[in-house]
Structures are given as structure tokens and as C-alpha cells.
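Worked Example 4.2. Consider the chain below.
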Amino acid sequence: MSVLKFLLTLTIVSFSFVNYGQEKYTISGYVTNSETGEAIIGARVYNDSLKVGIITNIYGFYSLTLPKGYHEIAFSYIGFSPQKKGIELNKNIELNIKLVEGKLLNEVTVTGEAKKHETTEMSTINLSMNKVKSLPVLLGEIDIIKTAQLMPGIQSGSEGASGLYVRGGGPDQNLILLDGVPIYNANHLFGFFSVFNADAINSVKIIKGGFPAHYGGRLSSVVDIRMNEGNMNEYHGEGSIGIISSKFMLSGPILKGKTSFMISARRTYIDILARPLFNQINKQSSNYKTKAGYFFYDVNGKINHTINKKNHLYFSAYTGKDKFYINDEFKYYDYDSTKYRYSNSDAGMQWGNQIFALRWNHQYGPKLISNATLHYSQYKFLTGFKDKEYYEGKEKNPTVFNSFEYLSGIQDWGGKLDYYYYPNPKHKIIFGIGETYHTFSPGIATTVYQEGNTKQDSTFGSTKTYSHEFYGYFEDNFMISKRLSVNYGVHFSNLLVNSKYRASLQPRIAGNYILDENSSIKLSYSAMTQYLHLLSNTSIGLPTDFWVPATDKTPPQFGHQVAVGYTRDLGKGYNISVEGYYKTMKNIIAYKEGASFLSTGKDWQKIIEVGKGWSYGGELLFEKKLGKITGWLGYTLSWTWRQFDNINFGEPYHYKYDRRHDISLALTYEINDHIDLGLVWVYGTGNAITLPIQQYQQFIDPTTSNNGYGYYYGYGGTVQYYEKKNDYRMPAYHRLDIGVNIHKKKKWGEATWSYGLYNAYNRQNPFYLQYGYLKNDFSPNPTKVLKQISLFPVIPSISYSFKF
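Applying the procedure from the previous section yields the following C-alpha cells:
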């Protein structure tokens, strides 16, 4: 029996379990934060006597159908005081709950939480924003992606980078969603920070396997990020001033209790700090001026409007940009030495994202709600230079003009319709459809040269590609018995590109069997299809990585993953989970040997290889959620491979980020209400790299070599011989980060000073390796050695933040 036939049979059988003979009614409503009015995602609604419950969705909505009679319903969420409501259920009841936030997490509060062993979710991480903000980070810049890297199964790539490599996958295989809209480049500062401002974020869910059917389009992970909706009741603000950047967030009511807003902005000031240096340099010469700089900024915004009890509108927006620039101006006398001539050169690169989403949430009744979304997403990378020469006052009419521009990017327009149906406590059904119109600009170069009245220009590289991606899905979270529950479904997708259709049917299933009141075993299978590829030469997500579509010549990526796990609640806030997985990836792409994004004269499809990959391993996560000391210990043991017909002689080789061992320890210690400490220690096996095993001088045959002036013979350049790809390991990576936060209450709110040490014991971790000569060896044939280049020594940081 095929997987699809099995899922269809399960669907038919599941509804035969519904008891239609007993009179039942439904309790439904929204769970919100009493202080801000924002929806609480993932709150637990539970009836202990019947042992049934549900988790609120991304809009804070719940629906629980119970037999007629009296019931006590418990509402809880971590960090909030739980509430119990006694209800005489003799009709459908709408009950909205406002939970009160509590600073300390006690056992009573957490007892009401959905325990890991009770749900079908596996390979899933929910990040607490309070935890993210309390851990020490590079240069004091809070980053949710760097916190995610501390979880088992997720690797960072290179030193300090904010990329995600999940269970052997590449950076393009992560579906990163901001309020349901894809973000295509999540990096600031050449990959060292992510684009997500923690002050604007409400929740973060990371899924590494066992993917629910309502997610699609990527092979390795889903990072579902939801922005704050804004305070419905009063104005609230927070911000910070750090070494790298400053940021500010403001939220509050537009119409109290009905409409709220949130806006958050962040900007670096590296370019501003550098200006005095360049001003001093420019004072040294009257003929030469230069300036250079780099900055990034991002702005998040959201409006939340309640039309009535059954209709809500949400508008989300994000815009961000990185820019590096350099300008040189040289003044000199013309040939006749009677007037000045100017030479001006501008060069640089810039990249950024823009997203917009308009959502309408409608409640049809106590059991059914829908969400209609229109969305736009754009990522664009631009680099180049402009050189011109002109006489004084003639800048707009240069005598010589020369320019080069390289553009790549992707633009999406899309819409989707999702339905959430709660027929009874045994079922939570989600289904929907959607469509996205993609426009790809995969490496288009333009050159212009003009001298006097003579002008030459050309455009070359890849042309724009357009595609339509359609999808639909069905998903049911079905509690078969008090011990056994499954989440099963199917995701269907279809791509239209260059008049060619590609279709894919992707079954998903995850099961949970409760062994006892504290433990369970879980099993999942997922089939995934991805119609996008990322061409990359780099390890830190530089903007020179660019997106390309599956075409009639380049097939889409396919992936399958099986995972099995065991989880146990140990009591008093302790939890342990162990998972093993096996994943295959087909039709992944890579540059041909020697090719890169600089190969602008060729269509990208002519400079790539198509191959496959696979990964397997085990993960351990031990968590402590209660008490003054909280945190987790994660460990990953894994193997990751790649294989291409024309790379490494067709033999399998270790993926660059194949790390045998990864360990992460993250702890916070709340000394008192005013001081808390954070500690992070990480260890990882060194990255796999390719090094030559021999080198020799190339001999030039005098009978065939001619340099234009006669025959030349002797030795040419150095030739290096590589035996296998990625057959050498860099030294292991490890470091310790320490931070302390000192809070002080003010009349207007709260102020916090944060101090940190990144790489506290000054470990010289490898960033890359290169060959050099032995120090102080001045012999005619100096000894050549392999040298390690390190990037970050011990780095202190300080920042000031405030809330009001």
C-alpha cells in the first residue's frame, strides 16, 4: 500500500470514530495578553476530567467541543498565570480569555503547559523571546537566528555567521517566513547578523522534520516568525544603544481596544563613526578626496484592526537594506596645464528585502475560521562602479564615462486562503490553496563606455525568468486514542515555467504514542519539493549568492526525511528528548569547478552541476525551564554527503558543513530581580575543506612556447594537485560567551545595562586556512606551512536598553 493510499484510508477511518449519539456543544474564542491585547500563540486549553485539549493557533483562536454538562476548562501559557473557568455547557459558548503575565515561572504555571510528550510535534523548537534577549551574543547584537544555532541539528556555517544549515541541508533549503511571507536573504553585515529585530518579534517556531502539510516549498526547515501585533490598551516602547547599532520600537492603540500598531526601526552607524577618519585623510591632500562607509537598516511595521468579533485585519510590512560604498575624487591639471580636470569613481554594493502582507481573518462559527492573505516579497542585490572624467563645472557632461552594473534578485506576488476546522476534540483540520508569481533576475550585467560622442553599451548574462507556483494542502491532527495521535496530510504543488508544468504530491505523517504520563515515542515521514535553488560560492550567505528557479532544463529539488524520537518530562521543569533522522536530497545544484557568480558572460544553467545529497544522525536536547537557573544542553552526531557526476570524479564527498559532533550549552541565572547572567559554550568538529596534497612548477616546452619576442623556456607557474574534495578537517571550533544584564526600575519604566564577552577565553578559531612560509625562515627554499586565519578574538560589548 502506498503512503497516499494509507493516508486516504486513515482519513476515512478517523471520522468513523466520531460519536454522533451524544449531545455536544462547542466552547470557542481567543486567548490574549491582558496587558497588551495581543493574541497568545500556543496557549493550552485543557479539560482534565476528559483528558482533552487544544492549542491556540497563530491568531490565538481555540475551539473545543465537549459533551453537554458542567466542565472546568484550564487556560495556560508559559510565563502567565493560569486560569480555570467552570462552564455549564448547554449551548455553543464564546469565551475570550485574558491571561495575566507573571515574571517568575513556577511549577504550577508550567504544569498547565502542553507537554512535549503529549503532542505529535517533533523536531520542533519554540524560541522564547525573553531567553533570546538574555543570552550573550556577538557585539551585543541580539539575534534570533544565532540563538537558533545553539539547538541540536542546526549549524551556523562559519565563525560568527547567521546562516542556518539544518540536518545537512543548505541555506536555500530553509523556508524563512515573516508573518507568513518568505524572506529570501536573512543576512545583514555580510552574513554576520540576521535581518530580524528581536524587539519586533512575538514568536519563533523552527521545524527540522516531521513537517505539517500546510508548509511547503523547502527541503530542510521552516522558520516561522511572527511579529508583535501592537498594544491595544496603552502606548509602550523599548529600544537600545549598542556598539553596532541602535534600535527603537513603539506600539500602542490607534483606536483603543479596536486598532493597534507596532513600528520598529534599527540602524548601524559604522559609516558615521568613520567620517572623522576620512575627513582627516582628506585634509592631507588638496587634489585627492575619498570617502567610504557601510551601513544597514531595517524597519518593521504592523497594524492590527478588529472589525467585529468575527473579522480581523492585519497589515504587516518589512523593509531593510545593506549598503557598502567607496568614492574617490582626484583633481589634476589638464594637458595644457591651464585648467583642472576631475576623475571621479563610485563603487559599492547594496542588497535588501521588502515584504508586505494583508490578512483577513474571518470566523464562520465556533468550529471554522479562515485566513485570506495577499503578499509581496522582493530581494535585490546590486553591485558595480561608475568612473567619469570631466572639467570643473561639467560633471553632467563627462568627457569619459565608464560603468559596470550587476543585478540579481527575486520578486514574488502571491495570495493564499487557509481554513482551520475543529469538528471535535479528536480532530484539528487545516486545508487551503495558494499561488505565487515569481520573477527571477539571476545575474544580469550591464556595461557602458562613452568617450566624447562615442558610446558603447551591452547587457549580458542570464535573462529574467517568470514562473507560477500553485499549491494546495490538507492536514488533520487526529487523536486516535488517549495514547495514540497522528498528524497526517498531503501537500500538492505545481510549477509553470517556460510553458512547462511540474507537479508534485508530498505526503506527510507524524505519530505520537504515549508510553506513560510523562513519556512518549514519536515517528515521522515527510516528502518535500523545492522549486528554487541558491547558487553560492560562499560560506556566510554573502549577497553574491543568488536565487534561480527550477526550469525546463534544471529540475526541482526533492527530499525525503524519516525521524524517530523519544521525549520525557522529568518533572520540576526538566525535559529530555532524543531523535534520530535520515534524509535524502535529489537535484541539488552547485557551480562547476572554477565557476562562480563572476561568470557573468554565461547563462547560469551552463555553469552548474546537478547532483544529490544525504544526511543522517542523532540529536539530544536536555532542557530546564524552571528555577533561577534555566537553559539547555544540546548535542548532535551527524554525517552529511554530496555527490555530483563531474565533481570529485563522481565520488561522494563530505559536505563542507559535515560536522561529526556539535555541542551547545546555554544557561541563564537570575540572581535577583535586578541582575541576571547568561552563558553560552559551543563546540563543533572542524569544517571539511579541500587542500592540495602536492605542488610543482610547470615546465614550459621551448619548442611550443613563444612570448612574442622569441622562444622562452624554463618554469612557469605553480600547479597544485588535489586528490579528493573536502578530505581535510579544519581544527575544532569552540568558544565561551558570558554576559550580565543589570536592570533598574525607573519612574518611566525600566533601564538595562548589558555587558558581554564574546569568545571569553580568546580561542583562536579557524576562519580559513592558507599556505604560507615558516616564520623567520630566510633560506633560499623556505619551508611552506599551512597557516590558520582567525577572525574574532575576545570581544567585549556594552549596550543600554530601556522600556516604558
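The radius of gyration is 29 Å. The first strand starts at residue 24 and ends at 33. Compare this with Example 4.1 before moving on.
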